[in-house]
């Protein structure tokens, strides 16, 4: 069966792959928006605001094409603290030391725009990470894997060895919760 076309307002290669699992062929048009967290903003509210802002920014330029436009945003939350993508290796190490031995939340919001209307769903998944020795974290940071990932780890890569359990959605932790995404795309 032929894949259906969709505009993906995200540069994340994981999202291209995950959308393909649902039968969509992504045209990647990344949105460059201000990703600052507002003072006191709840992490779950933050990801929904960003996913919608990314989708609306691309919709403003490509709405006439009649294709659905999808965006997502993922963040790791430790209490009210938002852990986004680390700026450098030192920040990656700091984030990983904070997350090691904790159960934390990973929030991913998905937004779809079609016919000028935006709809958004949130997935929040709890992730239990074992206490990881500092030398192992240092090696992981040196591998470069943390740098494009919220919270400085990827559940789908080497960090998978530290994940005791999750409650929620594996694809959500990877950046695109497939159940919620399918709900949004089938609703059109
Ligand atoms: C926690 C976690 C995050 N991630 C990734 C998913 C997202 O791509 C990234 C979070 O950054 P995002 O800002 O959500 O997305 P992005 O910068 O990759 O792409 P864009 O802003 O263009 O939409 O972290 C994993 O791949 N595995 C994980 O286990």
Give the helices and strands, then pairings.
Blueprint: E1 4-8, H1 13-21, E2 24-28, H2 43-62, E3 69-78, E4 81-83, H3 89-99, E5 103-114, E6 117-129, H4 134-142, E7 163-167, H5 170-174, H6 178-186
Parallel strand pairs: 1-2, 1-3
Antiparallel strand pairs: 3-4, 3-5, 5-6, 6-7
The structure holds thymidine-5'-triphosphate (TTP).
Family: Belongs to the Maf family. YhdE subfamily.
Active site: 73 (proton acceptor)
Keywords: Cytoplasm, Hydrolase, Nucleotide metabolism
Task: Summarize the structure in words.
The protein is of the alpha/beta class and 188 residues long. The protein has one domain (4-186): Alpha-Beta Complex (Maf protein), CATH 3.90.950. The protein has helices at residues 13-21, 43-62, 89-99, 134-142, 170-174, 178-186; strands spanning 4-8, 24-28, 69-78, 81-83, 103-114, 117-129, 163-167. Strands 1, 2, 3, 4, 5, 6 and 7 form a 7-stranded mixed β-sheet that branches. Helix 3 (89-99) packs antiparallel against helix 4 (134-142). Residues 10-12, 14, 30, 54, 73-74, 76, 85, 106, 148-151, 153-156, 173-175 line the site of thymidine-5'-triphosphate. The site of thymidine-5'-triphosphate has 22 residues, from strand 3 and helix 5. Its cofactor is a divalent metal cation. Its EC number is 3.6.1.9.
Concise overview:
By secondary structure, the chain is of the alpha/beta class. The protein has 6 helices and 7 strands, in the order E-H-E-H-E-E-H-E-E-H-E-H-H.
Give start-end ranges of low-pLDDT stretches.
none
Helix content: 25-40%
Which ligands are bound? thymidine-5'-triphosphate
Q: How many alpha or pi helices?
A: 6
Give the N-to-C terminal Cα separation.
19 Å
Mean of all residue-level pLDDT scores: 96
Tell me what the CATH architecture is. Alpha-Beta Complex
CATH top level assignment: Alpha Beta
- Total domain modules: 1
| Radius of gyration computed on alpha carbons | 16 Å
